[in-house]
Design goal:
The chain contains no helices and 3 strands. It has a 3-stranded antiparallel sheet with strand order 1-3-2, with no helix packed on it. A hairpin with a 6-residue loop joins strand 2 and strand 3. The radius of gyration is 15 Å and the shape is elongated.
């Protein structure tokens, strides 16, 4: 939920495992994307699990 209780909808488009050196995962994208990542496997810092999602529906903000 965003500002004012508005909800944006995302669709997962990619899930992958990368090394900690793969910093391209935080590079800007050409389209609105949501990227989250965490250490993998649980309890280890050996790899990162990355989930990327694309914006499907965004709330319309009306200006006063």
């Amino acid at each position: 939920t965003g500002i004012g209780g508005r909800i944006a909808t995302y669709r997962v488009v990619e899930t992958l495992i990368v090394t900690p050196a793969d910093m391209w995962i935080v590079d800007p994208t050409d389209t609105p994307m949501f990227t989250m990542f965490a250490c993998h496997p649980k309890g280890s810092a050996r790899h990162r699990i990355v989930v990327r999602a694309e914006l499907v529906d965004a709330p319309v903000v009306q200006l006063p």
